Input
Amino acid sequence: MSDTLRIISAVIIALHGLIHLIGLAVYLKLAEFEGFAYKTTLLGGRWDLGEPGTQVFGVLWILPALGFIAAAAGMIFGFSWWGALLLGSAIVSLLLTTLDFRVAFAGIAVNVIILIALWFGARLA
Output
């Protein structure tokens, strides 16, 4: 992978991680963002977590956020572990975004693209 493509990819991955902080902030009622209303339900309103469950769900958003940011740094600096961390982060992110698909549909698409890129990258290596 060229240096330019690696840096662009890492920036996109890091930004995706930072966007996960919106989920953390909204579900913990730390901030409000237009289009991301606080709610206690997931799966399109079919699963009510209640207040405590929503807080746990909110805390979970930090895991892929940190994972994506660390994977991006690992990619930039050439560490061998970045791919495994990116894979794990994308899977956790895909689960979280799928649970809140009405709001996080763009995140689902980004995660699928990341997973496809990792799969093709592994197949080509």
Summary: The longest strand covers residues 41-42. The mean pLDDT is 94. The helical segments are 3-27, 50-60, 62-77, 82-99, 101-124.
